[in-house]
Amino acid sequence: MVPLPSHPPRLRFRPIAGAALVVLAALVATGCGTGDRAADDGALEHTSQSDQQAETDANTDANANAASEAEAEAAAEPESGSPDRRPQSEQAEADDWCATEALAAEVTPLDAGAGNRYAALVLTNTTDAACRTQGWPGLELAAADGAALPTETVRDDSRAAVPLTLAPGESAWAQLRWTVVPGSADPADGGCGPEPTALRVIPPDTYDATPADWELGAVCGPGRIEALPLAEGEGP
Q1: pLDDT of 6 over the 90 cut
Q2: How far apart are CA 47 and CA 50, in angstroms?
Q3: Is residue 196 scored above 60 in pLDDT?
Q4: Number of Cα atoms under 13 Å in the Cβ half of residue 118
Q5: 71 falls in which pLDDT band (50, 70, 90)?
Q6: Is the peptide bond between 222 and the residue preceding it cis, with omega within 30 degrees of 0?
Q7: Which residue, 112, 131, 153, 235, has most beta carbons within 10 Å?
Q8: How far apart are CA 51 and CA 22, in angstroms?
Q9: What are phi and psi of 79, to 5 degrees?
Q10: How crowded is the C-beta side of 188, counted as CA atoms within 13 Å?
Q11: Which residues contact 202 (CB under 8 A, 6 or more apart)?
C-alpha cells in the first residue's frame, strides 16, 4: 500500500488567462480612445478647411464687387480735361436760371423804318458762373421821377424761343419795335405821352426788374412795344 501523505498537496493556480483578459481590455480601451481622437481631429480639420474656403469666397466676392463699383464710377465720370460733349440743351438744363441780379440790361438803337423804331435789348451775364435763359423779357417804361408809364409788351412769336446758356460775360439780345405815330389811344393833343427815361427789364422766369437807360423818345400806342424772344449775342 502506498502511504497517504500527512498533508494534502497544495494546488498551484496559473493566472495566465486572467492576465490575458486584463491586457486585452487595456488594448480595447486604448484602441477606442485613439479612434475617437482621430475622428475628432478629422472633423476639426474639415471644419477649418470649410471656414477658410468660405472666407476666401467672401473675399473674392468683395473684391469683385469693389472692382465693379470702381469701373462704374470711372465710366460715369468724364476724364480730366475732356470737353463736355452733352448737347447744348442738356448743358442749359444743368445750369441755374439767370436771376435778375445776374444780368445787366442795355438798350441800343437799330435802323429806323417809316413810323417805326427798332432797338436791341441786350442782357449780359455779370456773374462768374454760367446761367440759362429762354423766351421774352417783360418791359416797363419809367419817367424821370421814377413813375411807371403805360407800357404794353407784345410777344412777337415769328421766331421760336430757344434755350440759351450764358457764360460769364456773354450776352443775349431781343429786338424791340414800337411806333412814333400817334393813334386813337394816344393823348388828344396829338402827342404820344410823357417821354420815358428808363426801361425796366424783367428777364424771363423772374419777377424783379433790372434797369436800362432809355434815350429813344416817346413810345406811342400808348407804350406798345413788340419784342422778339432772346437770341444769342449782342444784336444783329
Answers
A1: no
A2: 5
A3: yes
A4: 11
A5: low
A6: yes
A7: 131
A8: 44
A9: -65, 145
A10: 0
A11: 100, 137, 138, 139, 140, 208, 209, 210
